[in-house]
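U., I forgot to send this yesterday:
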Amino acid sequence: MRPLAAVYVALLLVLVVLADAGLLGPALRAVHDVPWLDKRVHFVLAFGLGSVREAATRSRGRAVLVAALAVLAEELSQLAVPRRTFDRLDLAADATGLALGALAVLARSSRSPRAYARRT
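Result:
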């Protein structure tokens, strides 16, 4: 699972760099043209990040805290990038996605037979 988490994080970093450089202009405009699609994309990407981070580290939520700080830093950095805008609703969608992604992995692992065997 760790290689998958590394690839996922790398892809997110590439998306952020391309967006900050203005190289996703038409795609970003298309996303912003559909009401609330931007927030849904933030949620889905953050859900994936929360899921793969939790599954890769089995940290019981601590890895998601690190991911949340990274997401917060990325969103705040948009204040310094002329073609990007800081949005509290993006941040809320990211936080919700991270938390629910991690919780989904934790809930699934707590029901698995291997998780039960580890506790006994």
